[in-house]
Automatic annotation (TrEMBL), chain B:
Superkingdom assignment: Bacteria
GO molecular function annotation: 2 iron, 2 sulfur cluster binding; metal ion binding; oxidoreductase activity
Organism: Frankia nepalensis
Entry keywords, A to Z: 2Fe-2S, Iron, Iron-sulfur, Metal-binding, Oxidoreductase
Pfam families: Fer2, Fer2_2
Pathway in which this enzyme or protein is active: Alkaloid degradation; nicotine degradation
Name of this chain's protein: (2Fe-2S)-binding protein
Presence of the UniProt keyword Transport in the record: no
This protein's record includes keyword Iron-sulfur: yes
2Fe-2S ferredoxin-type domain segment(s): 1-77
Length: 770, 160
């Protein structure tokens, strides 16, 4: 038998993966949504009748049709109306007040609030037939002024919800900074940064299949949080949770974008119940580009003050967040940026304010990094501006301000308690790895050679938060030992490419001292594991890893107790080693776990386990060459030094770090959703208009790790996988600014497309009259 | 319309609507779901298959255009004993997949190139061009380049 790198690889390389769209359920119908092309408008009429006449179409409904649908003699008959989209009030990230009066209907009722919002659904015997039907649906939307930028929407000249402000939430972290601090500081720099709206773009779009069976539903969805989906779908249907089972099969990437209960999911579940037939929705890419959740979306203003020696005195961050058309998790997400505004520096005064504004764009939601890239990018760009102001080397400015290793745990002015860190260690390793002095010498050489392309070096020191917020730092799961020697681990997580089936059995095997092949993992199935939180916020290695470690301890304790009882000896005398129990005083008393189970009955342990919040950190360095004539950026080198505490599987963590660096490069140089003034995304040519990095855009990247264990978890693991999205963008942007030496760095707003760079290359340089 | 596709050596007599794209016919009519759809407009390459040995984006070609052709999909890469191909092994060894959604497309485009020219391993530029042709959102591509290089070099050693 071939030895696979990861257990998942066998099926995924052999074409035997099972993604939602691959699942064959007899009689399954396809749902297709009819979507508004207008970004903001009043829905005057929808006519689904012509669609119903199309052969192969089983039904077509607008919200009004569903409201009028006669109750059938079925358990769903209690549903008088299509339920709204659940809004996930989670761990301080969103609030009921923000949602009150601004509910997200699963199908548009009176007003369209974002381009692509669904006005009707057509269900057919197959996708082609359902699309034939959808093409026949007619509807009328009377346009209203579109609120596209948060600054415009915040003026409330046109509310998205009558009688309610477009500002859905205001918040702050830290204390306001006295004017005298700014007045008296030796140096104060300011900046304005745009964090564009991004498309997470997992290669598999969203997908759900709902199959009813008597009074139960089985739901297959590519999803990060199956228990949340179960809870929210059950609540939408007015059902008890135990009648819904959510199964997450292979999932083709998520990056934060697959953890909600989307409007389409509510509709599909509702129709499966109404029709008593399996219904699926397989999103296509053009649809996804129009209506999948967006990431980032902040307009930021900053002020940073330092003394003449470059010691930071104060930092102020003002965030105006574009949270899209309906308040959801994204409303509170910018608070993450505010809480993380302090970054890795010992700045005594930090104040961040947030205003989350509703706009006529699709909803903003976590995308890999989720609030932390926005914090790191704003601060790290400002650090470079400060270094230039003080004529100080940017590495030296950082060195003087990084929180020293002996200061942990460190309470930040913005309310975070950093668990552990050696920030300077990561910085120095990054500088050595990239050969910082060598590149500075090359930069100086090019500066004297008028024919040479300008070159820049960009640094970015970051600290992020992993595991989740208080109230969400736990997970459920357990272990079961079989008579056949097998050990089954269960947990509430769900993989979307992170290799859980490989990493966690290896961890359990290591902890118990048994062969890896004996251990298997079951996850992503609410029928197998009754409670769970899921995989988001870089929590799985940290929290689920700790939970499974803890379950191993419970299993060992139980095995020792049973052996002690069997042998009639005190439990202290029974030792555990390499999957066996043995009597310390009697060498002949040795029993393998499987024999113990045979002798004493099924052995199953289950628990809930909680870790502390953890704070991974690192330094990324980019070296960029800029062609001022073409406006192109050529990355020569990227070094990413990350510290995610104790690493469970070095190759998997390396792969996560590398892949996320490439996404970080995407944000810095290529990605951003352009919106027209009418609120319609300008993505008519699909993925040709939204530039995901291809192999051509990948520079030589070197990923290295330092290792500072987290004291908040028994394994010492911190979250991994988001580092590139957090650390890389500012390094790239700083490198470009360093190459061009523009007087006004605010000219370089991401993505740094050739157009942006070309214009900046023509703007006044530092030291030139503006 | 009645057509015959030979898929991975097996004959499929099919009755398909002329508008159906090859990917849908492979996935739904032949129940070979290893071929994935990542964009359905020809950009991502997840749907890559070989039609008469040529790499084709199966979302951009109609099944009826392939009448009488021989189609190879990811399900047809393993050896007769079910053992993975050198390329499949290399993908796993080099961690060239995370979620695995893009993997069939990369495997097929690289298989086509390797089979057309077993000396591919001598030419890093051509391998890089292959990696450039498809999208992957997880890996950052470098592991995919290494995997194809590894398999190509293995093939080179076996070639006369
Ligand atoms: S699905 Fe065919 S190229 Fe993307
Ligand atoms: S492995 Fe996920 S898209 Fe390539």
């Amino acid at each position: 038998m071939h030895q696979w790198g990861r257990r998942e690889d066998q099926r995924l390389t052999m074409g035997k993966g099972r993604f939602v769209a691959d699942i064959e359920v007899p009689g399954c119908l396809d749902a297709v949504f009819v979507r508004s092309k207008t970004g903001h408008g009043t829905l005057r009429s929808v006519d689904c009748a012509p669609a119903r006449a199309v052969p192969g179409v089983v039904g077509a409904w607008a919200a009004a049709d569903l409201m009028d649908m006669p109750a059938c003699a079925h358990s769903a008959s209690v549903l008088q109306d299509l339920p709204p989209v659940p809004h996930s009030v989670l761990a301080r990230l969103s609030s009921d007040e923000a949602v009150a009066g601004r509910e997200w209907p699963a199908l548009v009722k009176e007003r369209v609030r974002y381009a692509g919002e669904a006005v009707a659904v057509v269900v057919g015997e197959d996708r082609y037939l359902a699309e034939d039907g959808a093409a026949e649906v007619t509807f009328e939307v009377e346009p209203l002024p579109a609120m596209v930028r948060p600054s415009d929407a915040a003026r409330d000249s046109f509310p998205l919800f009558d009688g309610l402000s477009n500002v859905a939430l205001t918040g702050e972290a830290g204390q306001p900074i006295d004017d005298s601090v700014w007045r008296d500081a030796a140096a104060v720099v300011e900046g304005r940064y745009r964090q564009s709206l991004l498309l997470p773009t997992p290669m598999e779009c969203r997908a759900i299949l709902v199959a009813p069976d008597a009074d139960r539903l089985t739901v297959w969805a590519g999803h990060q949080a199956p228990h949340r989906l179960r809870r929210e779908l059950a609540a939408s249907l007015g059902w008890p949770e135990d009648r819904v089972r959510v199964v997450v099969p292979d999932t083709g990437g998520a990056f934060g974008s697959k953890s909600a209960t989307f409007p389409e999911y509510v509709v599909v579940a509702y129709l499966a119940v109404k029709l008593r037939r399996p219904v699926r929705w397989i999103e296509d890419r053009l649809e996804s580009m129009m209506v999948a959740t967006r990431g980032r979306g902040q307009d930021q203003r900053v002020r940073l003050a330092a003394d003449a020696d470059g010691r930071l005195l104060a930092y102020e961050l003002t965030i105006e967040a574009d949270v899209g058309a309906y308040p959801h998790l994204g409303v509170g997400l910018p608070m993450q940026t505010a809480w993380m505004a302090t970054g890795p520096y010992a700045t005594p005064k930090v104040h961040a304010t947030v205003r989350s504004v509703l706009t006529n764009t699709m909803v903003t939601y976590p995308y890999r990094g989720a609030g932390r890239p926005e914090a790191a990018i704003a601060l790290e760009r400002s650090m470079d501006t400060m270094a230039r102001r003080l004529s100080m080397d940017p590495a030296e400015l950082r060195r003087r301000n990084l929180i020293p290793p002996e200061s942990f745990p460190y309470e930040t002015p913005t309310g975070r308690r950093y668990d552990s860190g050696n920030y300077a260690g990561a910085l120095e390793l990054a500088l050595r790895t990239v050969d910082y002095d060598g590149w500075r010498a090359e930069q100086a050489r090019r500066g004297k050679d008028p024919g040479a392309m300008p070159l820049g070096i960009g640094l970015s020191c970051y600290v992020e938060r992993s595991g989740g917020e208080p109230g969400g730092l736990f997970e459920f799961g357990g272990l079961e030992a079989g008579e056949d020697g097998s050990i089954t681990a269960r947990c509430g997580a769900a993989s979307s490419g992170q290799g859980h089936e490989t990493v966690f059995p290896a961890l359990v095997a290591r902890t118990l001292g048994v062969a890896q092949w004996r251990v298997r993992l079951i996850e992503g199935d609410t029928g197998e594991q009754p409670e769970g939180l899921g995989s988001f916020a870089s929590r799985t290695a940290q929290v689920v890893g700790a939970l499974l470690w803890h379950a191993c301890q419970l299993l060992i304790d139980e095995a020792r107790r049973r052996a002690a009882r069997m042998w009639g000896v005190p439990v202290e005398r029974v030792e555990w080693s390499d999957g066996t129990v043995r009597d310390a005083h009697d060498r002949s008393a040795v029993l393998d776990l499987s024999h113990l189970v045979k002798a004493t009955g099924p052995l199953k342990v289950d628990d809930r386990f909680e870790t502390g919040m953890a704070f991974p950190f690192g330094t990324h360095v980019a070296v960029a060459e800029v062609d001022p004539e073409l406006g192109t950026v050529h990355l020569l080198r990227l070094v990413a030094v990350d510290d995610c505490g104790v690493v469970l599987d070095p190759e998997i963590v390396h792969g996560q770090a590398f892949g996320s660096c490439v996404q970080g490069i995407g944000q810095a140089l290529y990605e951003g959703i352009p919106y027209g003034d009418d609120g319609v995304p300008l993505l008519g040519n699909g993925l040709l208009d939204y530039l995901l990095p291809t192999f051509s855009e990948v520079p030589p990247i070197e990923v290295r790790h330092t290792r500072t264990p987290s004291p908040g978890s028994p394994l010492g693991a911190k979250g991994a996988g988001e580092s590139g999205c957090i650390g890389t963008p500012a390094a790239v942007v700083n490198a470009v600014i360093d190459a061009l030496q523009v007087a006004d760095p605010d000219l370089l707003q991401m993505p740094l497309t050739p157009d942006v760079v070309w214009r900046a290359a023509r703007a006044p340089k530092r030291g030139e009259p503006r | 319309m009645k057509i015959t596709l030979t898929v991975n050596g097996e004959e499929f007599p099919l009755d398909v609507e002329p508008r159906r794209v090859l990917a849908d016919v492979l996935r739904e009519d032949c129940r070979l779901t290893g071929t994935h759809l990542g964009c359905e407009h020809g950009v991502c390459g997840a749907c890559g298959v070989l039609v008469d040995g040529e790499a084709v984006r199966s979302c951009l070609i109609l099944a009826v255009q392939c009448d009488g052709s021989s189609v190879r999909t990811v399900e047809g890469l393993a050896g007769p004993d079910g053992e993975p191909s050198a390329l499949q092994r290399a993908f796993s060894a080099e961690h060239a997949l995370q979620c695995g959604f893009c993997t069939p497309g990369f495997l097929m485009v690289a298989t086509g190139a390797l089979e057309a020219d077993p000396t591919l391993g001598d030419d890093p530029d051509r391998i890089e061009d292959l990696v450039r042709s498809n999208l992957c959102r997880c890996t950052g591509y470098e592991p995919i380049r290494r995997a194809i290089t590894r398999a190509a070099q293995e093939a080179r050693q076996l070639a006369p």
